[in-house]
């Protein structure tokens, strides 16, 4: 019998698919045809699958993805909680903006969550940062995980952030039952929590939440040709006043963005990060040209 559903878990070569029509979870395998095509089903995929009594089912086809992450492999993600700590590791606007570029380019809505504010005496700086990001249009949560939970219904949510910022601590507060289930699987597999290859979306707070945090290290790069406009909407807003349509707001005359930075309407740190990312992208283009010439 052919059914449709979403892959919620991948473990030891099996895919667990929740049937759309009756919410039953079926254990399936992917046939060799996926390997031939160079694709592989991943958690979050919408799948067509077969079931048979007394035996496991097969994934027959997967629907085109709206987006996907590589680490952890999850598809069709709606939003990501970007966890950043006020301290330990040190707060970094550069890292935050990098996450925003990465996520907006994958059409994943960022939810910024600032942790470890209890270790900070003077909150004024962070409140100013929050106000700046909220004004641009980003959701920014300061240690208030209860409010964050309101964003979860009907969405697929992943967590990401540098190592040590408090992702696991936050997940434990939001979904203690999930941490427990993950721990049980790790124990069974005999591997540590961080090396387990199990990926799962949990039905929690009326949405789906990934238990495996993404991008815990800094060693990722912005995509080759990211569109910086999506992550810097405030620059985009002013750019309509630039004389040149192709203005990069770096050195062109009659640029409308630079005066807005000078007057404080655009935060200096945002402009600086924008220029830095722009130079990184252009640097990569140069390297690419050199490689092609050889
Ligand atoms: N004071 C304080 N400590 C926190 C907070 N959140 C996390 N920590 C501590 O920070 C350390 C790291 O927290 P984790 O939750 O393990 O961080 P993580 O982001 O999951 O780290 P990785 O698993 O390495 O990616 C732990 O010692 C936590 O107890 C917080 O809000 N306040
Ligand atoms: Zn400009």
Structure explained in plain terms:
Belongs to the TRAFAC class YlqF/YawG GTPase family. RsgA subfamily. Residues 66-218 form the CP-type G domain. The protein has helices spanning 32-37, 93-105, 124-136, 145-149, 167-174, 176-189, 228-231, 233-239, 257-262, 268-293, and strands spanning 2-11, 14-19, 25-30, 46-52, 55-62, 68-69, 74-75, 79-85, 109-115, 139-142, 156-160, 199-204, 207-210. It is α/β, with parallel strands linked by helices and 294 residues long. The strands form two sheets. Strands 1-2-3-5-4 form a five-stranded mixed barrel. The chain has a two-stranded antiparallel sheet with strand order 6-7. The termini are far apart. 31% of the residues are buried. Residues 217-221 have low confidence and may be disordered.
Note poorly predicted spans.
217-221
CATH superfamily of the largest domain: P-loop containing nucleotide triphosphate hydrolases
Strand order of the largest sheet: 1-2-3-5-4
Largest sheet: 5 strands, mixed, barrel
- SS summary, helix count: 10
Order of helices and strands: EEEHEEEEEHEHEHEHHEEHHHH
Work out the helicity level.
Answer: 25-40%
